[in-house]
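Lab notebook, bench 4. The sequencing result for the construct came back, and we need a structural model before the next group meeting so we can plan mutations. Quick request posted to the team channel:

Model the 3D structure of this chain.
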Amino acid sequence: MSNKAIFLLHSPWIELCARLLLAALFLYACIHKILHPDQFARIIYGYQILPGWAVNAAALIMPYVELVAGLSLLLGIFPRAGALLISGMLFIFILAIGFNLARGLEFDCGCFSVGHKNRAGEALELLIRDIALLGVSGLVLFFKYPRKGCLLPESSA
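Done. Here's the predicted structure in token form:
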């Protein structure tokens, strides 16, 4: 990897942009889920992965995990913990989408709203998007932070 690429990966500005992007996406995504947990539970049920008894718990807990992780990244408070939560969720989303894609099922992503069944091509786009977001989350997760918390990490210059 070139020195310029390494510099960019360790740039506090790149890290800040990555944090703000993930924060905006996950904070926006949690709003509808928090306001309409019944609809989100139906979406989770439609993935046909979780047992029925776990669907409601997942629908009630997941949006608040997204909220906490998004706020963590937005405010720069424990950003690695926020990135770790988001990475874990993205990993689960990737597995769920990939599993349903392999089974050929049409399903509602549930990412930002309800009522849209994803066909195979759209599900593949979701899978690629989530893999890319996992890479962005990895940038935040492995960024070298100063000891004191702040919105923008101190530069090493």
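The radius of gyration is 17 Å.
Will bring this to the meeting.
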